[in-house]
Amino acid sequence: MMARPRNLPASAPGAADPGAAVEPILRRWLGLDAQAIGLPALRRAAESRMAAVGQADAAAYADLVARSPAERDLLVEEVVVGESWFFRDPQVFEYVAGSATARAAVPGRGPVRILCIPCAGGEEPYSVAMALLDAGLEPGQFVIDAVDVSHAALIRAARGSYSLNAFRNADLSFRDRWFTVGATRSVVADRIRGCVALSWGNVLEPDFCAGRPAYDIIFCRNLLIYLTAEARRRVEETVDRLLVADGILVLGAAEPPILRGAWLPAGAASVFALRRGPRPAAAPAPAPAAAPPAAGSSRVAGQRPPAAAIRPGGPPPGAPAGVTAADAQPDDLPTVLRRAGEIANAGRHAEAIAYCEQARTRLPPSADLFFLLGMLHQAVGALDSAESCLHKTLYLDANHEEAFLALALLAAQRGDPRMAETYRQSAGRVLARKAGP
Fold it and tell me: Lesser CB count within 10 Å: N end or C end of the chain?
């Protein structure tokens, strides 16, 4: 779920704040953190719906929202705009396809089960389906459930018709394989659409997806950053309930540090794929003090590791003996990003940072590399370094909305709501430009 402010008229002078009137309802219903999307955006959304129903009194409109599920849903459509594109972060889908293929190869097991919450306009679950079919799986070997609280998003997903804005990657060969391509819009193939089951649901409801078998992989990208701390806790509990014991949770770039449970990096393709960490026993017996963890041991996601002494000229993990990091450093950016993900997912964030810094001295300036460095610094609690890297990301790519969102999260953590709002508005303008007319 990506939220962006709508371009709506401002409140009339002296009128009660419509945003403040509906905020408690949306907080209870969606777990929405008004500070995360910005109070002005919430006010403009409420004003738009008030104008549509001919209601000038903010309190009366809030009462209507509380009584009418239909009006509540229309307000949700104003507040939250699904914004995504196909194969967003391609390495994520490569990793998921590899994991699903390995699971499907286990003799006697059922289909690999995948859940996408939220699913926006279908770009993410359809990307998963394409990745699995391209990896050689048959439709009967996997199940993809896509759930969203937005009825409008589900209608868009069911139509399966997308503008050029949904195709942003350099490699668009998948579009030739799986779409009927038109001058301005492309329609996803029926075979892909048939792999995805769309349904409405609210992940904060206690019975969300109740009665369904557990999932092997759950996508929950770019949702937690818009929720209150209590809503995040409830979503995390729901994911824990729905995920198989060895399942994988895929999050957005800025989200692993805000989880509170025991989660560990899951694989080599992305620093945002997690597995469950060890759970405490019901009645643990006293034990002698343990030795410090060995270098390279995995740690709970978001927990700050000790500041490891990484020699900048030392060999990177996996390099042959006698080869320095500089000598072993590859010359292409995709390899650097993939290798950095492998190191970080082994829990060695300090090494991943050192590896990226070495690459930075050898490669042309890259927004993607600075963004990854920003996320790695955030993961170890080095917020100043994270902020610096994110600003460099924007210097190289002024339309990097995820960098704006990550900066908004950092500003909120620092207790600077005004700057957080500025960053959120910048992200909203970028998304609006990318979405087009």
Answer: C
